[in-house]
Amino acid sequence: MTAGISGEFVAFFLLSLITLGGAVFMLSFTRVVHMVVALAFSFLGLAGLYVMLEAEFVAFSQVLIYAGAVSILMLFGIMLTRHDVDEEEQDRRRRHRTFAFVAVLALFVALFKGIVALVPAGEGKLAEANTLEIGKALFTKYVIPFELVSVLLLVALVGAIVLARKEGHDA
Amino acid sequence: MTVTLASYLLVAAFLFCIGLYGALTKRNAVVVLLCIELMLNAVNLNLVAFSKYGPQPGIAGQVFSLFNITVAAAEAAVGVAILIALYRRRSTVNVDEMDTLKR
Predict the structure, then answer these.
(1) Do B1 and A6 touch (CB under 8 A)?
(2) B70 CA: distance to closest CA in chain A (Å)
(3) Cβ pair B48:A53 closer than 8 A
(4) Nearest residue of chain A to residue B26 (CA atoms)
(5) Fewer beta carbons below 10 Å: N end or C end of chain A?
(6) How many domains does chain B have?
(7) Quick one: pLDDT at residue B2?
(8) pLDDT in tens, A64-122
(9) pLDDT lower than 70: segments of chain B
(10) Mutating which of A58, A134, A142 best tests the B interface, going by the most B Cβ atoms within 10 A?
(11) Residue A162 has pLDDT above 60, yes or no
(12) How far apart are CA B75 and CA A66, in angstroms?
């Protein structure tokens, strides 16, 4: 397409705008709950980007796990602890913030140079039924990591319960 | 104007940098955890983008990002549990007050 802008580009632009906008708003908000809501939008935008990349199953898990579970978990974490508005700006913190900004900017410039220098590889063909392919790969080639991940999830679940349990005689 | 591999990688790089900046500067530990999740998400976007546009397109990148999502979820659960345990003991969630090892 030469003159007009393709629909794919418009979709990409909107989705990345939602994603990056959510992240930037997360940085600029002062209330913690607002930050989590902004990040939930960012996660949803990422799921849209996954759909554009023909990764429907990953997009589905992204919505379920990140926009659903992790956001709610973080909200619980906020509600169960004290959360005051980020207030005073000491001199030391401002210096720390400037230093962090410069470091992150340097990292971004380095990444940008690397990405621009990247040789375009051209679009490949992915299988039509992606979820089917993922299932086949998970249960043949990646079956040992798959089982290990299930053990990891179990350990994390038990560990989280043990860590967050109330200590004392009633436990 | 078409969407190429580089555009996805740029979005992911920007997202990673925002997450890194937030993780370095925010005081509330829950927000720091969220920023780490954001960085992991940027990596996932890279993996999925390479699984379509990479030199050898295939399903491996998507499987990798699924594993990544799982590990990130486990990390978030354990992180929040540690925070709650710490809050019960020290009644703070600000990272600059967790400095017992510095004293």
Answers:
(1) yes
(2) 7
(3) yes
(4) A27
(5) C
(6) 1
(7) 75
(8) 999 999 999 999 888 888 776 655 667 778 888 899 999 999 999 999 999 888 876 66
(9) 1
(10) A58
(11) yes
(12) 12
Question: Which of residues A56, A86, A116 is at a domain's end?
Answer: A86
ipTM above 0.85, yes or no: yes
Residue that is written with structure tokens 């925002």 in the block: B18
Claim to verify: residue A81 and residue A18 sit in the same structural domain: yes
Residue B20 covered by a domain: no
CA–CA separation, A111 and B17 (whole Å)? 10
Q: B22 lies in a domain?
A: no
- Confidence label for A1 from pLDDT (cuts 50, 70 and 90): very low
**Partner B contacted by A76 (CB < 8 A):** yes
Query: Residue B47's domain spans which residues?
Result: 28-93
Total domains, chain A: 2
B37-70 burial string, b = 16+ CB within 10 Å, else e? Answer: bbbbbbbbbbbbbbbbbbeebbbbbbbbbbbbbb
Residue B78 within a domain: yes
| Structural tokens at position A169 | 């005689």
Digit-coded pLDDT (tens) for A141-158? 999 999 999 999 999 999
First vs last Cα of chain B: how many Å apart? Answer: 57
A61 and A142 share one domain:
no
CA angle B94, A62, B81 (to 5 degrees): 30
Question: What residues in A contact B74, CB-CB < 8 Å?
Answer: 152-153, 155-156
Nearest-CA distance B53 → chain A (Å): 5
On whether any CB of chain B is under 8 Å from the CB of A65, the answer is yes
Average pLDDT for residues A32-47, to the nearest whole number? Answer: 92
